[in-house]
Design brief:
Layout: H1 3-12, H2 16-28, E1 33-34, H3 35-42, H4 46-58, E2 62-67, E3 70-75, H5 77-88, H6 96-106
Antiparallel strand pairs: 1-3, 2-3
Helix pairs in contact: 2-4, 3-4
Length: 110
Amino acid sequence: MDTKVACEIFSALSQPTRVEALRILIKTGANGMLAGDLGDLMEVRQNTMSSNLSVLLQAGLVRNEREGRSIRYFADFDGLRGVLGFLMEDCCGGTPDLCQPVIDEIACGC
């Protein structure tokens, strides 16, 4: 990943609705969530939710699958790993023990 791509991802995350939607999709894991259900949960209108999910999709932070007339969204963990890897690529100047608290904080405890 280069800096330009990382900046596009951060731009996608510069809006509170998109950050919250992504966090919810991360929590749902492999089950994902229907776009309409996500909008209802967040109390966001359908067209607004659709626009925000489109931005996250373009940034590679979510993926989707059509289910009949609905679309189910999932967090794209490869995309998330990519941006986290970019941020942590040269972590702590060769002193990995300084990075361990960050790694522990973001590691899934499930």
